[in-house]
Amino acid sequence: MPRSLLVRASLGLVLSFQGLAHAGQEPPASEPAPEDPALPEFILPTVEVIGKVIPDAPPDSAQRRDPTGAITVIDARERAGEARDTAELLGGSASLVVQDSGGYGQSKSLVVRGASANGVLVFLDGIPLNGAGGIADLSLVPVALVERLEILRGAAGARYGAGGLGGAVNIVTRAPSSRLLSSGEVTYGSFDTVMGNVAASGALLGGQALVLLHGGRSQGDFSFRIDELPALDDNPLTEEVRTRNDARGGGALVKYQRGLDSGGRVDLLAELSLEDRALAGTVQNPQLSRRQDQTRVSLGGRWGRPFGDTGEASARGFFRRDWMEVLGGSTGVDAGAQRYTVGGVELEGRAVVGRRNALAITLAASSEAVTQATGAQAASWWRASVMAMDELSLFSERVKVVPSLRVERVGQYSLLSPKLGASVDLGRGFGVRANAGQSHRAPSFLELYIRQGLLLPNPDLKPERALSVDAAGLWQDDAWSVTAGGFAAVYENLIAYEMYPPMLAKPYNFAAARVWGAEVEVEARPRPWLTATTSYAWTRTQNRYGDPRYFGKELPYRPRHKWVGRVRAGPDWLNARTEVLVQSAQLINRVGETRLSLPSRTWVSVGASSTFLRRPDLTVSFDLKNLLDARTADYTGMPLPGRAAYVTFSVALEPLRTASSEDSHVASPP
Questions:
Q1: From CA 615, how far away is CA 583, in angstroms rounded?
Q2: Which of 472, 486, 539, 554 is least surrounded by CB atoms within 10 angstroms?
Q3: Residue 222: beta bridge partners?
Q4: Which of 182-196, 228-242, 437-451, 630-644 reaches the highest mean pLDDT?
């Protein structure tokens, strides 16, 4: 078997960096349009995709960045009018668990394959959204912006950088069209929730542009049930009302792209997000006056062009600044106003070398800084990385071997992330894939340097490390796609807070854990008017910390079972849908006592929509969430809303006719 070019290059890199140990962060490039000239395709049939397969995948798509990875693509255009936020779109994916603070506009984060929320990278068109605390808040990304979601489960360090212990999610926003298109949407529903957006797209200055404005608010009050004496068995539940759960926000998205005479293209992006929300606190520790104001400004630009028939190059830059202030609350706990800034550049080249190798090299550098008013605290550092990936094709491209390696410096930490992937096309729609890799998460600024009320920093923290493997089999034809596989990971040097007398907490590297499980995803499209998808994940976790009280017990907030089934049937003029989510109980602490756990939940949602008028297209949708009125709680004891109903009215002028047409980027009614 011919040796991969990257195997030889990797050996040289490893010898040159013997003192390096762990990996950093490379944000994916901003989204190019499908008409960009591209290299010959190296997209593997073993990649798992729920939703529509994206033809002619662009160079920075998840399929091209990690050809053998466990990837799911969700087309948000197929969910138009029914999802309230981005987290709702992600909640149906295998091994993704949403941690919800309850209600519209409240904080939402992801746990992927047992990795903590700060071990999952989230990007907005390649711009990293993981802030100074290391956790990306999905509530700040409204669904109106989203065209599709690209999800990579498993080791993401080699291709996406530090922080990708459990995986990475790239939120691809709506792209402009060359035709004049405009659309609007308004939703009203339970808890006095109102959301809306307007968008316009068309030719501008020799290119094409998109402008989108969005906003929403919710009173957020809802009833919930509480066990006031959880230490006692069979204690009756009492019903209370969740107050001070209101939120409001808005923002804008502006995108522009233009083709160049050289055959390349320039893409520009600007995004603004504003949010003001009450922080109600947990049921056991309610807050009477605490609020959070947050503003985000994101800017991005990308230039790319092909070179000959087998090469392409790109350069991109990004900038993001967050302003956050927490007001009110208990004395001594307020963090004060905080400003977080990140910016960077990335250069990437790809080329087909010989008959069997496709080599990619990426150079990236970025700077991060955080400033907090309390005590005039501030911290900053630089990141720099080199990534190389080779895609070796054998046996008429039926076998793919993909080694990749990232060497990165993150502040004072030197990081090394290798990954090896392989896939085999067995014919007749069958295939297998497997991956093994190492990823890391450098401690966040807040964990290292900045005191937040009762939370102390620790500058001696070490990076977290994850060793991950996964394998899966796939079968697909024109109407069906089935993927089934397993995964395992070992997490080391996990950072966790420990009490520090009298009332303070300080982070330490003391925890270790094992995670293993199985995943199944199925999609069926037997008729143009009928789509059904289902996913199931079985996840086991085990605490490996040496304390005998916790050794061998499951990690908190990691449900063992999760199943989601979804069916959509009917033509555009009248269709119906239903979705069922079943999630098992989850522990709330490492002691492992069953009575101190969040109960299992079964959420059933139903809806219908009708495009009852053409040119312009007018669509009305109705959705009933949590049909069975399940009353449950989520992350850190936050109660979740019960049954809720929403009505959405949409209008589109000169709408798109098919999702696969040249300009199929602006969402049209279902």
A1: 42
A2: 486
A3: 242
A4: 182-196
Distance separating alpha carbons of residues 96 and 72, to the nearest angstrom: 11
CA 300, CA 127: separation in Å to the nearest integer? 7
The answer to whether the beta carbons of residues 408 and 162 sit under 8 Å apart is yes
Pairwise CA distance, residues 383 & 607, whole Å: 46
Could you give the angle at the alpha carbon of 347 between the alpha carbons of 342 and 352, nearest 5°? 145
Q: Which amino acid is at 56?
A: D
d(CA 555, CA 587): 7
Sequence-separated (6 or more) residues with CB below 8 Å from residue 548 = none
CA atoms within 13 A on the CB side of 181: 27
Yes or no: say if 57 and 40 are a contact pair by the CB < 8 Å rule.
no
* pLDDT value for 2: 41
Q: 3-class DSSP state for residue 13?
A: helix
Mean per-residue pLDDT of the chain: 84
pLDDT of residue 310: 85
pLDDT digits (tens, 9 = 90+) for 3-13: 444 334 343 43
Nearest one of 35, 84, 81 to 183, comparing CA atoms: 81
Per-residue confidence band for 24, with pLDDT thresholds at 50, 70 and 90: very low
Q: Give the C-alpha separation, 264 to 304, whole Å.
A: 5
Give the pLDDT band (50/70/90) at residue 442.
Answer: very high
DSSP string, 329-371: SSTTT----EEEEEEEEEEEEEEEETTTEEEEEEEEEEEEEEE
Residue 398, pLDDT score: 94
Residue 281 pLDDT grade (very low, low, confident, very high; cuts 50, 70, 90): confident
Structural domains of the chain ordered from first start = 5-653 (2.40.170.20)
Helix (H, G, I), strand (E, B), or coil: what is residue 243?
Answer: coil
* pLDDT of 338 above 70: yes
Res 562: pLDDT: 96
- Return the closest-CA partner of residue 266 out of 176, 366, 389, 174: 176
Residue 670 pLDDT greater than 50, yes or no: no
Is-contact 574 608, C-beta < 8 A?
yes
Q: Determine if residue 525 is left, alpha or beta; phi over 0 gives left, psi from -120 to 50 gives alpha, anything else beta.
A: beta
Answer for the pair 489, 467: CB distance below 8 angstroms, yes or no.
Answer: yes
End-to-end CA distance of the chain: 49
Is the pLDDT assigned to residue 347 strictly greater than 50?
Answer: yes
What digits encode the pLDDT tens for the residues 68-85? 999 999 998 888 778 778
Question: What is the C-alpha to C-alpha distance for residues 467 and 556, in angstroms, rounded to an integer?
Answer: 20
> Do the beta carbons of residue 228 and residue 240 sit within 8 Å?
no
- In 3D, which of 164, 170, 162 has the Cα closest to residue 120? 164
Q: Kindly calculate the radius of gyration of the chain based on its CA atoms and give it in whole angstroms.
A: 24
Give me the residue label for tokens 């002691």: 591
- Is the pLDDT at 581 greater than 90? The verdict is yes
Give DSSP secondary structure letters for 503-529: TEEEEEEEEEEEEEEEEEEEEEEEETT
Residue 14 belongs to what H/E stretch? helix 5-16
Q: What is the pLDDT of residue 248?
A: 95
Write the CB contacts of 183 (distance below 8 Å, at least 6 apart in sequence). 198, 199, 200, 650, 651, 652, 653, 655, 666, 667, 668
Torsion of CA 301, 306, 307, 310, to 10 degrees: 130
Contact call for residues 616 and 653 (beta carbons, < 8 A): yes
